Amino acid sequence: MTAELTASTESIGNRILDEAETRAGDWYEYGGAGPYVFDCSGLVYWASHRLGVNMPRTTYGMLSTGVSSGLLYQVSTPKRGDLAFYGTGHVEIVTAWPHTTFGAQDAGTRVGWHSWNAYWHPTMYFRIR
């Protein structure tokens, strides 16, 4: 019996989130890009590169190079797998749960799911092509 390769119908953002979620519980470390410690953009970078997506390494790179290259485009209604930017300095990945993102949040914390509120919430969302 031979295995057949089939194209996934799941969006690239969903697959990046799935990959990132395998690192839940790893520690945040500024400048970390895996495989065992991450900062916010390092986690997105690591997960996307595991799937062959050439995502810029930093949050600022994602917002400038990623947008200008057409890799990312802004959306007003986020879906699971979209990138959620908090101001211009922090990025996480939108989950299926309302007001929840997945990422590496802050020094001394572990990679995981984070709820947001009126004071700490995404200011813009981008979808990955």
Would you write up a description of this structure?
By secondary structure, the chain is an alpha+beta fold. The model has no long low-confidence stretch (mean pLDDT 93). The chain is globular and about 35 Å long. A hairpin with an 8-residue loop joins β6 (100-103) and β7 (112-115). It contains 3 helices and 8 strands; from the N terminus they run αββααββββββ.
The helix-and-strand class reads alpha+beta
* CATH level-3 fold name: endopeptidase fold (from Nostoc punctiforme)
Q: How do the helices and strands follow one another from N- to C-terminus?
A: HEEHHEEEEEE
Largest sheet: 6 strands, antiparallel
- What is the global morphology? globular
Q: How many strand units? A: 8
Please summarize what this structure is.
Helix content is 24%, strand content 23%. By secondary structure, it is of the alpha+beta class. It has one domain (12-128): Alpha-Beta Complex (endopeptidase fold (from Nostoc punctiforme)).
Features:
single chain; 129 residues; alpha+beta; endopeptidase fold (from Nostoc punctiforme); six-stranded antiparallel sheet; two-stranded parallel sheet; 8 strands; 24% helix
Question: How are the SSEs placed, and which strands pair?
Answer:
Layout: H1 12-21, E1 27-28, E2 37-38, H2 40-50, H3 59-68, E3 72-75, E4 83-86, E5 90-94, E6 100-103, E7 112-115, E8 124-128
Helix pairs in contact: 1-2
